């Protein structure tokens, strides 16, 4: 299978939104239809908003002409205190001005072929200072496993009974990792 990737900076990605929504639905089969509709609407709104911000980037992967994966990233505002799991001090120090991976979606038929790694590598190039992060849902075991396998370090762990959980991973060469102890996941 010949896979090609294309980078869409800024609002160049707006013409792809419905195709991205379709792939997200395909990749998350098995969820309740109303959850798919909610996530599709969230994706449409978020990309419309993020595409106009400095540093927004979308990357697609296609097998021939078929979309098989996509990822998006945007630069975190500076100042930034928007990640309550870290607290305002660490959120500012670790995440402000860093690249945040917002989406990494791969069609089931394309998984295990290095497509997600290729997209992730492309999305992290603008983080020349290696400051990159992601906050996947703590129940998305595939995403958690993928980022761990890529060498990303989980810095926030969900608390039992604390409501909807998220975790925060820092990229493998993020400068903040120099001072963090290695904790089992």
Report what the structure shows.
- The structure is a single chain.
- This protein starts with a strand and ends in a 15-residue tail after the last strand.
- Helix 1 runs antiparallel to helix 2.
- The longest helix has 18 residues.
- Strands 1-2-3-4-5-7-6 form a 7-stranded mixed sheet.
- By secondary structure, it is an alpha+beta fold.
- 30% of the residues lie in helices and 23% in strands.
- A hairpin with a 2-residue loop joins strand 2 and strand 3.
Key phrases:
single chain, 7-stranded mixed β-sheet, 30% helix, 23% strand, alpha+beta, 185 residues, 5 helices
Helicity range of the residues?
A: 25-40%
Strand line-up of the largest beta sheet = 1-2-3-4-5-7-6
> How far from one another are the termini?
34 Å
Please tell me what the overall shape is: globular
Helix-strand topology string: EHHEEHEHEHEE
What is Rg?
Answer: 16 Å
The tally of helices reads 5
Mean pLDDT: 88
**Roughly what fraction of the amino acids lie in strands?**
15-25%
Q: What's the main sheet like?
A: 7 strands, mixed
Content-based structural category: alpha+beta
SS elements, strand count: 7
List the helices and strands and how they pair.
Blueprint (H helix, E strand, L loop, with lengths): L2 E7 L7 H11 L5 H18 L6 E7 L2 E10 L12 H8 L3 E8 L8 H10 L7 E3 L6 H9 L3 E4 L11 E3 L15
Helix pairs in contact: 1-2
In summary, what is this structure?
This protein is an alpha+beta fold and 185 residues long. It is built from five helices and seven strands; from the N terminus they run βααββαβαβαββ. Strand 4, helix 4 and strand 5 (132-134) form a beta-alpha-beta unit.
């Amino acid at each position: 299978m010949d896979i090609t990737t294309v980078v869409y900076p800024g609002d160049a990605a707006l013409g792809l939104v419905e195709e991205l929504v379709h792939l997200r639905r395909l990749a998350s089969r098995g969820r309740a239809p109303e959850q798919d509709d909610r996530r599709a609407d969230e994706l449409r709104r978020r990309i419309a908003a993020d595409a106009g911000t400095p540093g927004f980037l979308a990357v697609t992967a296609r097998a021939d002409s078929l979309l098989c994966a996509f990822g998006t990233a945007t630069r975190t505002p500076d100042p930034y205190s928007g990640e309550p799991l870290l607290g305002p001090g660490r959120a500012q120090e670790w995440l402000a001005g860093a690249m945040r991976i917002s989406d990494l979606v791969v069609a089931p038929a394309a998984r295990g072929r290095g497509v997600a790694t290729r997209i992730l590598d492309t999305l992290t190039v603008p983080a020349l200072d290696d400051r990159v992060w992601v906050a996947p849902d703590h129940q998305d075991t595939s995403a958690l496993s993928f980022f761990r396998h890529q060498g990303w370090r989980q810095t926030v762990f969900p608390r039992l009974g604390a409501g909807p959980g998220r975790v925060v991973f820092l990229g493998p060469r993020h400068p903040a990792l120099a001072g963090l102890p290695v904790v089992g996941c």
